[in-house]
Write a sequence for this structure.
């Protein structure tokens, strides 16, 4: 059975304090790993798609990396507006069509 | 990025009534859309895959007679919660994918359903 595990569940950072969020996965044939940001009461906002080990993508203060077993979302010098829940999802050969299998998310709080 | 619009954002209904939620892809065509459900502090759980012009595919444990899905066009899918009960209260989110150089899955804003 495909599994997606995110850690930590919650993370509190000081503004400017860089850190990384982890997403480990056990799947039967990865067809893409997705990162999203979700604000309270809102739908997920697309950040990145990664397809193969060694791939990296960047967007402003965020950088996503992928290995054969896990993905990291690195946050460099975060600001309070980066506070949100970050979701990791995988699409695999066992999913129906293109549906995504989500982890439970990491709730990030960045304090001034 | 592409825009997926979901309406309404919030709805309160009485037990036993039905509620319809719309999901539109505003600037692209989506032959397939997905409906998810999210409980507080939990992740998104796939309910069903909505296919334009054909019947939806439901995940195990999801009652297809309760959660009616209609994908009438390439830009619109609807989810109708029939005979709603308080336990149906949840956050419902739809998504659609845009395939290009990379495949990006875009989500609607979500609908907070409260059944009283």
């Amino acid at each position: 059975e495909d599994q997606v595990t995110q850690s930590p569940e919650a993370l509190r950072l000081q503004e400017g304090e860089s850190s990384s969020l982890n997403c480990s996965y056990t799947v039967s044939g990865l067809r893409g790993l997705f990162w999203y940001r979700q604000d309270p009461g809102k739908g997920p906002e697309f950040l990145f798609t990664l397809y193969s080990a060694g791939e990296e993508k960047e967007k402003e203060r965020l950088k996503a990396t992928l290995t054969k077993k896990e993905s990291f979302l690195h946050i460099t010098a975060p600001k309070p507006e980066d506070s949100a829940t970050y979701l990791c999802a995988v699409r695999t050969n066992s999913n129906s069509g293109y549906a995504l299998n989500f982890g439970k998310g990491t709730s990030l709080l960045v304090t001034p | 990025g592409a825009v997926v619009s979901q309406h309404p954002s919030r709805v309160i209904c009485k037990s036993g009534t039905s509620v319809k939620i719309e999901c539109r892809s505003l600037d692209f065509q989506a032959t397939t859309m997905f409906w998810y459900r999210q409980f507080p502090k939990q992740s998104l759980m796939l309910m069903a895959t909505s296919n334009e012009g054909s019947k939806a595919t439901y995940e195990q444990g999801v009652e297809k007679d309760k959660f009616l899905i209609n994908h009438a066009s390439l830009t619109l899918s609807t989810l109708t919660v029939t005979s709603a009960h308080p336990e149906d209260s949840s956050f419902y989110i739809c998504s659609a994918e845009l395939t290009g150089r990379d495949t990006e899955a875009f989500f609607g804003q979500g609908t907070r359903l409260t059944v009283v």
